[in-house]
C-alpha cells in the first residue's frame, strides 16, 4: 500500500473512524465507578469514585484516524501499518501459518471470476478459495477455541455459529485465522504466540479495510469481536486499563454497513450473531464506566420471538436464540436508560413512565419465555455457601437468567424519584435487599456453572452496581472467590475489580496475579 492508497483510506472510509472520538463525555478516566461510602446510584456527579485504571501504552487502533482538535487519541492508517508490521518481528516468533500464508495469500487470492465460498462479497482479497493447511500447533489452538472459547461468543446463540462455523472458515480466511489463534493462545497463556498472531491479524485487517466490500464481510466482523476478547484478556490485571479499540472498530463497521433498521433476534447468519456478541461486549464496558452503551437503539427487533411460528424440529433452536437475544436487547435498553444523562429537560418528566415501561418489558419476558428457560434445579442457601445452587440446561438459558436479574438490579438502583446523593450503607433499605437478592441469583448461577464464562463476566461488571451493598464478611469472601477463580481459570483480569470493591468495603487490596 503506497501513500496515495493510505490517503484514500483516510479520506473515503468513514467506517474506520471510531464513534467515540466525537463523544468526549465517554472517557474511562472520567467515568464513575463504585462509590466509596455511598450507594452506586450514578445520579450525582459529585460523588467520589474509585480511581480509573491508569493509562498504559498499547498498539494504536486500526479503526480510526486522527481528528483535528480532538481530545481523544487517534492514529493514521499509515502509522498503524508501520507499527503493526509483523515482518518487523523475528520470523521465529511468528506462527508458522503467518510465515507461510504471506506467500500463499499472494498466490491464492481469487480473481473476480474465481469461485468464491458462499456469502463472500466481490473484492474479498483476504479470503482464499484454496485452504491454507494448519500446523499441528495451530490446529491445537483452533481446537482449543472450538472446545472452550466458542461458547463465550455463542452464549445467546443456540445454533452455536461461532463454535461450529468459524473453525470451518479459518483455513480460508487469514484474518479470521489469526484472530482465533491470538485469542486461543492468550487463553492458554502462550504470550509470544498470541502477540505474534495478533500483530499479523492487525496487518491483514488494515489491508482488508482498504477494500470497498469490507463493511459487508461477515468474517471481518467476526474477527473483530474475537479480537475484542483477546484485548480484554490482555488488560493489565492490576490496573484494568482498557483502550476498547476493537469495540470502537466493531461499532464503526456495524454502523457503516447498516442497510436497514431491523435486526433478527434469532441471528440466522454469522454476521447477525456477531452483532449480538458486540451488544454484549458493549454492556460490559457501559456498566463498568457507567455510561450509555454505544448501540444504535433506532434498530427494531424483527420478527419478535412471540411472532415466530415454525413446525420444523430445528425451529426450536432459532426460537430459543430469539428469546435469549430479546432479553439481551431488553437489558441494553435498560442500561441505556439508566446511564443516559443527555436528556432534554422536558424528557426528564417522562422518566417515571419510561421506567415503568421498561420494568413491565423485563417482567413480560420472564412471564412469556419458553419453559425450557427455567432452571432445572434451584436449591436453598446452606451453611457452606451464601449463594444458591441454580442449574440450567444450556448456556443461553443461564445467561438470559443473569441478564434478567441484572436488568432488575439496574431498574431498582436507578428508579426515578427523590433520594440522597450520598448515603451511608451501614444499613440496607428494602430496595437494597431486593437488589442483593438479584445479585445473589447471578452469583449462585455463576458458581453453579463455572464453565459458562459469560455469566462470570456478568458478575465482573455488575459488581460495580451492587458490590457496595454486600456487608456480610462471608458473602464478601465468596464474591471475591468467584472473581479470583475466574482469573485463575480463564485469564480474565479481575484483580483490579477485586481491589476496587475491597476499597469500598475498607479491606486491604489483593496482589496482582501473574497471567
UniProtKB/TrEMBL annotation:
- Which segments show compositional bias classed as Low complexity? 49-58
UniProt-annotated location(s): Nucleus
Q: Which GO terms describe its molecular function?
A: DNA-binding transcription factor activity; transcription cis-regulatory region binding
Q: Where is the composition biased (Polar residues)?
A: 68-85
* Main localisation: nucleus
Task: Please give the residue ranges the record annotates as the region Disordered.
Answer: 1-130
Which terms in the GO cellular component ontology are assigned?
nucleus
Which keywords does the record carry? Nucleus
**Superkingdom field:** Eukaryota
One record GO biological process: positive regulation of transcription by RNA polymerase II
Stored InterPro entries: Fun_TF
**Residue ranges, compositional bias (Basic and acidic residues):** 8-32, 102-119
Q: What protein does this entry describe?
A: Fungal-trans-2 domain containing protein
Q: What is the protein's species of origin?
A: Pyrenophora tritici-repentis
